[in-house]
Design a protein that fits this description.
heterodimer, A: mainly alpha, about 80% helix, B: mainly alpha, 22 helices, about 75% helix
């Protein structure tokens, strides 16, 4: 079984996940624009403002950034030192891809672990946050986003192995 | 542990995402000194206390939206009408348009793709030498980073905790100086007889003005809003985003509503990419500061260099090298926290330092062997890299001259800041 068939049952789920991410990102961005502009208008017209708006905007920045990063992972849009693709011989590239995806998956696994430890501490020493929600609820985005990123790197790793095997088989023929 | 860190560095060279590399470094470092790994995320969560951060996604969105609309073409038309009659008209127009476009879209490389395809054939048609035209387009790909509201300026402000409104004005004179020097050179190199040179009639000027009527107020809204005290820099980004959204989607109707989610996602992926590098480096920088690395680095350098000017010279060389290897966002995030305390130790003003940083990194974009502009232009115009190295050389010399002036005349960066308080 190669990765193509392995990924097949997961495909609708992946599709749904990307759809949810994209919708949430759009809503977050529009909300940030509207809330910020509303604050300016309230200050200009009534010299007042919503007390909760600025902390909420700052949380939304964090949420949108981390979700944006999760989406960037699935599209391979992360910033990297992209020198090797110009310098390395072409037949080495699939191998490099397998290695870097594995390294990324392992590192982000450690990040998920760290994020769970962090969240556990937050739950234990719970502080009240915005809108009366405990602070850990706002910070839950860390384990969540890193988990999505990690799963995507494992997926990419297995896909890269599948491609390697396919090339090998085609080479034998 | 050291060998694991070396392995991490090796993976950085193999095009592993930088945020992964920096996170790995932070995790390994804290683990080695027996500190709970949760500290990595605690550091990351501190980003929620950075009010300025909101301007990044909003300006990225506004810039992406502008570049997807007909705005670049309209700005080009307007510049042609007003500057096209000058000797070296089109070359001057190219410089101005590239600078404006980069200031608003920030992420470099986009400029070469969005405008290079329009400008290069036009320059060749007017009789400019091929090598000159290639060099001009390639090195203009990152021009304008010093003008507000460029993203690297904002990012420097976020990382160094310097006031954005000060950085915005600090870049104006150095940016103009750079433009003027390049313009003077392009005028000299222009063909004697211009094939398509013409003066525009009053009705053409009026029409160009009318077409750009909605985009023209944008710089004034941003700067006027901030310096008029109507809103802070973070809010200026929201006003810009809302304004651009209304103009391009509802007034010009060049971006259909259905395409908006795609543009938002594109912007958010770029922002997310920057944010996770920023988050990871919050953790790694905390470790380095905890280990007193900047302090020790300063003590070490201070043993050999006591003069501020020698330090600045070395800083320039170091940053030029960094700029050839790292993109401008990662370079700022990674290098600023280490250099800033050292530079302050030598009495360099943080705002001036920011302008020095950006100028260096901008030049690094066009420097061999791995400047991003060179690769972009090589890819877009299907030219060998070596040809582009040669084509950009005269422009590089001018940019380096500007860098020297900017570095050794702090007045240039600071006079407007002092004037505006």
């Amino acid at each position: 079984m190669n990765s193509e068939t392995a990924a097949k049952p997961a495909r609708p789920i992946l599709h749904l996940l990307a759809g949810i991410e994209e919708t949430v990102l759009s809503l977050l961005l529009l909300a940030m624009i509207v809330l910020s502009c509303l604050q300016i208008a309230l200050r200009g017209l009534f010299s007042g403002g919503l007390l909760w708006a600025d902390p909420l905007i700052q949380q939304m920045v964090l949420w949108s950034g981390l979700l944006g990063a999760a989406l960037a992972t699935s599209k391979g849009k992360h910033i990297s030192l992209d020198v090797i693709t110009y310098l390395a011989p072409e037949r080495l590239l699939p191998w490099i891809l397998v290695l870097t995806h594995l390294f990324s998956a392992l590192t982000t696994t450690a990040l998920v672990y760290a994020a769970c430890l962090f969240l556990q501490n937050e739950v234990t020493y719970s502080r009240p946050g915005l809108f009366g929600l405990p602070s850990w609820a706002w910070n839950a985005i860390f384990p969540l986003a890193f988990l999505i990123i990690t799963l995507r790197y494992y997926l990419a790793f297995f896909q890269a192995i599948g491609q390697l095997r396919q090339r090998y088989r085609e080479g034998q023929r | 542990m050291t060998s694991l860190k070396l392995l991490t560095a090796l993976f950085a060279l193999l095009a592993t995402p930088l945020f992964v590399v920096i996170s790995a470094f932070a995790l390994l470092s804290f683990h080695a000194v027996d500190i709970d790994l949760a500290v990595v995320i605690i550091e990351m969560s501190r980003l929620a206390d950075t009010p300025l951060l909101v301007s990044l996604p909003l300006f990225i969105f506004a810039g992406t939206l502008l570049s997807e609309s007909g705005a670049p073409g309209r700005i080009l038309l307007l510049s042609k009408v007003f500057l096209g009659w000058l000797p070296g008209g089109l070359a001057v127009v190219s410089l101005v348009v590239c600078a404006l476009f980069t200031a608003f879209t920030g992420a470099s490389g986009v400029t070469i793709f969005a405008l290079g395809g329009l400008l290069l054939p036009a320059l060749l048609r007017e009789g400019y030498q091929d090598r000159f035209a290639m060099g001009l387009i390639t090195s203009s790909g990152s021009l304008g980073l010093l003008f507000p509201p460029s993203l690297p300026l904002i990012l420097y402000g976020v990382v160094s905790e310097t006031r954005i409104d000060q950085l915005f004005v600090a870049g104006i004179l150095p940016g103009i100086l750079m433009l003027v020097l390049l313009m003077a050179y392009t005028v000299r190199k222009s063909p004697r007889i211009l094939k398509e040179r013409k003066r525009f009639s009053a009705s053409e000027i009026l029409s160009a003005l009318r077409q750009t009527a909605w985009e023209l107020p944008l710089p004034f809204i941003i700067l006027g809003g901030i310096y008029g005290g109507f809103f802070v820099a973070g809010e200026a980004a929201a006003v810009t985003a809302l304004y651009v959204l209304i103009v391009e989607v509802f007034i010009h109707r060049e971006v259909p509503l259905a395409k908006l989610p795609e543009i938002i996602n594109k912007s958010m992926m770029l922002f997310g990419g920057i944010l996770v590098i920023l988050a990871a480096s919050m953790a790694s920088t905390n470790y380095l500061v905890d280990q007193e690395v900047p302090t020790r680095l300063f003590a070490f350098i201070h043993q050999y260099i006591s003069s501020k000017y020698t330090f600045l010279l070395l800083l320039n060389i170091f940053l030029l090298v960094v700029g050839t290897m790292l993109d401008i966002f990662s370079a700022l995030i990674l290098v600023v926290p280490l250099i800033l305390p050292i530079a302050i130790g030598y009495g360099v003003d943080p705002v001036h330092l920011g302008i020095i940083f950006l100028t260096n990194l901008q030049i690094g974009y066009s420097t061999p062997p791995v400047g991003l502009n060179l690769f972009m232009a090589s890819y877009k115009f299907e030219r060998p890299l070596l040809e582009l190295y040669r084509a950009t050389q005269p422009f590089l010399v001018l940019l380096l001259l500007t860098l020297a002036l900017i570095t050794y005349l702090p007045w240039l960066s600071l006079v407007l800041v002092e004037l505006l308080g």
